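pasting for the record
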Amino acid sequence: MENIHQHIEAIVFSSESAVTIPEIAETLHKVFPETLLDHATIEQMLNDIATKFSSDIYAFELRVIGGGYQFFTKAVFHQTVAALIGQKDKKRLSTSAIETLSIIAYRGPVSKSDCEKIRGVNCDYSVEKLLEKELIEVAGRREDQPGKPVIYRVTSTFLDYFGINSTNELPKLKDVLPTPDDNMVGTQPELISDLPQSE
């Protein structure tokens, strides 16, 4: 098969979210049944493509996000793209939703009641909005608690939005938590400090 690199570029470019190596392999095999590339070969080709787009002549770069590959506009062009799509006018998450999302990101999978214990307020609306925006998803049920409550974790959409490959790449809590002298209205310090730090 000729131009295999270009076929892989086309797959990644046309995908709305990060595409994984198994997905690329499956797609290529559907189009070219006689060709079956192993994952190591595809990964090397993706590395070749990433090197190619690292050149200053391209406005895009290939990055590993959420366990897959996706093209992103390079940082130097972010302001230009933002002007086009009106990013500054996009509705932002509420403070309560951000607090709930942070708990799920650092401590997930967690239940809604876990979030409420930490925040000290009802989280129904925040969880609903985060699900609606596909920033969190149901990860199962907590078998060790009465009623087996639903537990939540962040999604690949969350990882894509923040440009990270996993929650392990989030800032360490010691770098982002307020000091004891800072205002911590609406939180419970003893519970916040109990959140595990990302490695």
